[in-house]
Design brief:
It is a single chain. The protein is mainly alpha-helical and 139 residues long. It has 6 helices and no strands. The chain is elongated and about 65 Å long.
Length: 139
């Protein structure tokens, strides 16, 4: 695997914008989407960011690293100290570190990283499938 850093960073930027919009316009979204889109997109951003940082890593390694990173950030929300809570009170700190632990966020992270896996592998799967189909058509 050799990912395009530029494409992955652009995709990560687009996903960040979608995530911010899911928070900003949450009242206009269906309740389920408003509740879970941000955390799901956060994990997808982690996947894309790690894919950009390590373009030669295999997809499953990027998935594992993104999931471990996401889980670590979520578990860090169980730790409360004055300094970290002050960081979480800032807009950027809150968006990156979150505010409080939720079990449902772990599931969202799994969905977000899985979306990254599908988005990365689906084009190659479709191409291989078409190539096999074209080869079968000539028989």
């Amino acid at each position: 695997m050799n990912r395009s850093r530029t494409k992955y960073l652009i995709a990560a930027g687009a996903v960040v914008i979608l995530g911010l919009c899911s928070r900003r316009y949450s009242r206009s979204l269906p309740e389920f989407v408003a509740l879970y889109a941000g955390d799901t997109l956060w994990a997808l951003t982690a996947f894309l960011g790690l894919g950009a940082l390590f373009p030669r890593w295999p997809t499953l390694r990027v998935c594992a690293a993104a999931l471990l990173f996401s889980f670590a950030v979520e578990l860090s929300q169980l730790y409360h100290s004055h300094w970290i809570d002050r960081v979480r009170q800032t807009r950027v700190g809150g968006l990156i570190l979150g505010y409080g632990f939720l079990w449902s966020d772990l599931l969202c992270y799994g969905v977000g990283v899985s979306a990254g896996l599908v988005l990365e592998t689906a084009p190659a799967w479709v191409i291989r499938r078409r190539a096999r189909g074209a080869g079968d058509a000539g028989r």
